[in-house]
Design goal:
By secondary structure, this protein is an all-alpha fold. It has one domain. Helices cover 74% and strands 0% of the residues. The model has no long low-confidence stretch (mean pLDDT 85).
């Protein structure tokens, strides 16, 4: 999202699209930390109850990210990094795996795997451009 700060003219479609992306991220947070969670409920039970919603929304966020990334390139804000073509399918695979499996060992590996891929992607594709500006 950092790159959108360089866009000087916004269309309604761009604004609505990015707002929908933010809404999906908010809903993901709400699925992880619902307002109605009680003291008697554990975080694990809450996650298990909302797992399908969370991973479905994570999948939606990553699917939305593909046209968002393409739009940044078409608006001249940022070229699509070559690593993106490996990272995007990996993120979608992680979201699908979380959506389709309820095995705790698999679930325990998904978050650190996702984070390692994200950090690696950001370090190797964007950090030099962000610092240079």
């Amino acid at each position: 999202m950092y790159w959108w700060k360089h866009l000087s003219v916004w269309t309604v479609q761009e604004f609505a699209f990015l707002t929908s992306y933010a809404i999906v991220l908010f809903l993901m947070a709400a699925a992880l930390f619902p307002a109605e969670i009680g003291r008697s409920q554990s975080e694990q039970a809450t996650f298990e109850r909302n797992r399908s919603w969370f991973f479905g929304l994570l999948l939606a966020a990553h699917v939305i990210d593909i046209p968002e990334t393409a739009a940044k390139q078409s608006d001249g804000l940022r070229a699509i990094p070559p690593a993106y073509w490996f990272v995007a399918p990996a993120f979608i695979a992680i979201a699908l795996t979380g959506l389709l499996t309820s095995r705790r060992r698999v679930q325990a590996l998904l978050a650190p795997t996702w984070l390692a891929i994200l950090v690696g992607y950001e370090v190797f594709s964007a950090l030099d451009q962000i610092v240079a500006r």
